[in-house]
Amino acid sequence: RASFADSPVVLFLNKCDIFRDKLEQVPLSTCFEDYDGPNDYDSCLEYIEKQFSMRKRSQNSNLYIHPTTATDSRMMLQIIRELKESILSERLVATGV
Q1: Which residues have a Cβ under 8 Å from the Cβ of 10 and sit 6 or more positions away?
Q2: Handedness of CA 53, 57, 61, 65 (dihedral sign)
Q3: pTM for the full model?
Q4: What is the pLDDT along the chain (97 residues), one digit of tens a residue?
Q5: What is the rounded distance in angstroms from the CA atom of residue 60 to the CA atom of residue 50?
Q6: Rounded Cα gap, residues 96 and 82, in angstroms
Q7: How many CB atoms lie within 10 A of CB 4?
């Protein structure tokens, strides 16, 4: 919908611990044929984040990407707190407050 085109988007890339382990057994290029970078966690995660960023509907909207392990409740609480602050600040600035 057009009314959400400029809305911020939060993307949780969950189960990153499993992703890290899987990379030791299966190269990322198995799923992304055009990927030709190193098969380490940071490089592969950066590639996936770029794929999502390139597909944003609007360049005016922010995309917040957070690799997570949802079973780590402390980490999840911290991420949610930071997101709330960022999005609230962004919306206040956008409305001129």
Answers
A1: 64, 66, 83
A2: negative
A3: 0.72
A4: 566 677 778 888 989 999 999 999 999 999 999 999 999 999 999 999 999 888 876 777 788 888 888 777 888 788 888 888 888 887 787 777 7
A5: 16
A6: 21
A7: 11
